[in-house]
């Protein structure tokens, strides 16, 4: 099923979960005509046959919401027998929160445009990755190396899902901050020796790949027995350096994402889900 938006896919999953049948954009209602010609029509996102209810999600930009409100008003006037419910952003986030998908109060994170991976989806995927890593490293005692800070939730959850005698270490590196010059600096180096060890590098998100590329060079110089990469998120569309990723949690679109460890100016790391930050929240 092709949805126009991830929030629609998520809504469909909630309906499926609760056994409510749905049809996606099954009918269009003409709103304005000139003779035989239809000048304007409205196609609600969902029809729920069991409830005889159309549902329109307005989780997107405010501009679109205003336009949709107008169309829904017109639709109600012209087709009084049609039952339609408009779920706005707040309603929708509340709905997700109710099912354990998000924070209890959407007002706390008004800067989030939409949820890309819910807490539940993340936990399911991380468990799968943990199981796969446990199989692949069976009989070995790898060293998991995390890159601070964004990786802290992921690393903790991932390792809880591995059944290996694993050692843990962290590195911290500087990131590019405007035109101050300089190069990637190691702010915290490894405590453990990784020479002749099987190393699994764990990253939160790979964007251009430049950070990972530098870190891999550095780790290779210690001559580990093997070196693999596990990234929670892969923002592939933005890749500049072709870095090998052995394990990937989710591919994400070319947008700024926060939550589950990922920050924007040190905020949002504690959100239990991964969401896209609204354009206007990025200064
Ligand atoms: P890269 O060097 O361009 O691949 O960038 C990797 C680093 O940039 C990650 O470890 C993150 O710290 C940060 N980063 C890249 N994209 C995002 C994002 O969408 N949200 C939060 N941090 C990001």
List key phrases describing it:
single chain, 283 residues, alpha/beta, Endonuclease, Chain A, Rossmann fold, 2 domains, 6-stranded mixed β-sheet, 4-stranded mixed β-sheet, 6 helices, 27% helix, 28% strand, elongated, binds inosinic acid
Describe this protein's structure.
The chain has 283 residues and is an alpha/beta fold. The chain folds into 2 domains: 6-102, Endonuclease, Chain A (3-Layer(aba) Sandwich), CATH 3.40.960; 117-281, Rossmann fold (3-Layer(aba) Sandwich), CATH 3.40.50. It has 6 helices and 15 strands. It has helices spanning 6-17, 62-78, 89-98, 119-136, 152-160, 210-220; strands spanning 23-24, 29-34, 37-42, 46-48, 53-58, 84-88, 112-117, 143-148, 167-173, 186-188, 198-206, 226-234, 247-251, 257-258, 274-277. The strands form 4 sheets. It has a 6-stranded mixed β-sheet with strand order 10-9-8-11-12-13, with helices on both faces. A 4-stranded mixed β-sheet has the order 1-4-5-6. The longest helix is centred in the middle third of the chain and has 18 residues, at 119-136. The protein is elongated and about 80 Å long. Mean pLDDT is 87; it is low at 100-107.
């Amino acid at each position: 099923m092709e949805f126009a938006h991830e929030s629609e896919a998520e809504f469909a999953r909630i309906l499926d979960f609760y056994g409510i049948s749905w049809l996606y954009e099954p009918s269009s209602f003409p709103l304005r005509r000139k003779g035989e010609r239809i000048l304007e029509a409205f196609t609600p996102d969902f029809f729920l046959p069991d409830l005889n209810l159309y549902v329109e999600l307005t989780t997107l930009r405010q501009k679109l919401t205003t336009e949709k409100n107008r169309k829904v008003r017109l639709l109600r006037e012209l087709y009084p027998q049609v039952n339609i419910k408009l779920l706005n952003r707040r309603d929708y986030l509340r709905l997700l929160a109710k099912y354990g998908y998000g924070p209890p109060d959407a007002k706390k994170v008004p800067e989030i445009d939409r949820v890309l991976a819910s807490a539940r989806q993340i936990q399911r995927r991380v468990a799968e990755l943990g199981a796969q890593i446990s199989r692949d490293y069976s009989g070995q005692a790898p060293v998991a190396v995390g890159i601070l800070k964004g990786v802290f939730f992921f690393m903790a959850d991932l390792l809880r899902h591995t059944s290996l005698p694993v050692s843990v270490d962290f590195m911290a590196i500087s990131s590019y901050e405007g035109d101050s010059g300089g190069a990637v600096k190691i702010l915290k180096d490894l405590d453990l020796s990784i020479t002749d060890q099987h190393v699994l590098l764990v990253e939160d998100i790979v964007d251009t790949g430049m950070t990972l590329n530098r870190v891999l060079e550095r780790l290779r110089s210690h001559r580990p027995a093997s070196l693999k990469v596990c990234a929670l998120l892969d923002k592939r569309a933005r890749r500049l350096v072709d870095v090998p990723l052995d394990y990937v949690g989710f591919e994400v679109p070319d947008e700024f994402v926060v939550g589950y460890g990922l920050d924007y100016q040190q905020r949002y790391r504690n959100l239990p889900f991964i969401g896209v930050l609204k354009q206007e929240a990025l200064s």
